[in-house]
């Protein structure tokens, strides 16, 4: 009698577990193949046919470090790497079950080369060391948004989407291509997704579009200007805006003009130089004229309503590109050099 009761309870428990497993698999199946919310392909590189976008991150401006050669030093770090600033997009896909890592990799490689891709290096065999060095250098999956559900296998086991990339059968390609005249950097990596039991291939693509950070988004307040003038005798102000090649001060400069005037109205005896600076693009004489005209525009704005700072307290000067604060070799440096300085007389 006891044996029959125990057997009946065991059967009931197995039935409950079976039902729970069925429901769980049904829930997983409902998420299978659905892209991460708000995720989308990059316009330059379309996904492998039938793939699922499981991880996604797009940042309008950030820094990213990528390897630039397959050589690794004794500390298991890349001997050559490059840090870039600009728009950064990271995408992680799962290919349809049954597609090999090599097939997926070759399709992406072919598409990139047909678009003019210039390979910096590639690895197609024994790439595990590169994978681990790259994971430490670039942290490819950090910050990604993930699709709902998880990776489930034909045998019923499951793995998180964040474990998709692995060293198993990994292949890597790094290089660049031109887009609208700009050099865009691409990292491509394919591998077995998590473990071989998934029978899936994961593909990671990182696209970096270098560009200068938008400057002048924060105006410097009167107290900060006062402190800088007391300690340095000058301050660079990036909240004063002009169109390229022009000297008409733009309306969005008002916040910075307000703070400059606030300080001048409390220190009524202090006089100032307003000095315009440019980058090194273009003719020097033209830059000298432009830098002076921009300084004059600031002086005119401050001496007019509503500020009405005495014009005798302000002297406009132009310095063209004679006093850079950064290298003009890159746009980020040129953006810093395009500035107006306030200098205590």
TrEMBL record:
Source taxon at top rank: Bacteria
Main location: membrane
Pfam families named in the record: OmpA (PF00691)
Key word Signal present: yes
SUPFAM superfamilies according to UniProt: OmpA-like
Protein name per the record: OmpA family protein
Keywords: Cell outer membrane, Membrane, Signal
The keyword rRNA-binding appears for this protein: no
Coiled-coil annotated spans: none
Domain OmpA-like: 230-345
